[in-house]
Input
Amino acid sequence: MPVRMVVKYAKQDRVKYISHLDLMRTLHRALRRAGIPVAFSQGYNPQPRVAFAPPLPVGMTSQGEYMDVMLASEMSPQEFCQGMNSVLPQGIAILKAVAIDESLPSLMSMIERALYCISLKAPGLCIEGALKDFLAQPDITITKSGKKGERLVNIRPMIHRLDIVGQEEGKVIMEAMLSAGSKESLNPEQMIRSFLEFAGIEGDSCCFADIHRVDMFLYRENEWITPLELGRG
Output
């Protein structure tokens, strides 16, 4: 009997500079090596029925990445995780898997937000006041590049929450809940660069200690949940 699984995995520091395409290839190879009974599409060129949630920008780590896998036969989530982790390279780890209803839409279409932890080096910056003034703006415009060229985008509606949660060793620790998904998506690095420019600090890479995706969220039955919470039962 076919089974649809949502799988949560981590992309750790060791592999944070590999592209999303290379990550997908690695996971596809692991599925084959682990003997996972992945279902294939119909037609002249059958493809494995594996889909991925919104990609993580290169250079970031995550403990909240997701893929959607259709299995041709039954397999327990525990067996799936153990099999995959036995063949995956260091730096990529399957954290949990759950079976979900086959009729649900794709993860890419359901996910709308992502939570990030940002460690920012900001020497000499009165960050609390600057952050309050930054978020008080009705418009925060950045230049986004795409297939049709560059365009100006107001990212303020995409910043759902941006808070300072701590400070340590010259770093400011922030949490950001940002839009992520097929409808609209905000790269946290672009947001931080815009903030540094607003605060009068050169927004180069030396200002970043770390950007880590904590999880992704979708809105269902009047609440924000993670994809794992779609699990049956």
Notes: The helical segments are 20-33, 77-85, 107-110, 127-135, 188-198. The first strand starts at residue 3 and ends at 11.
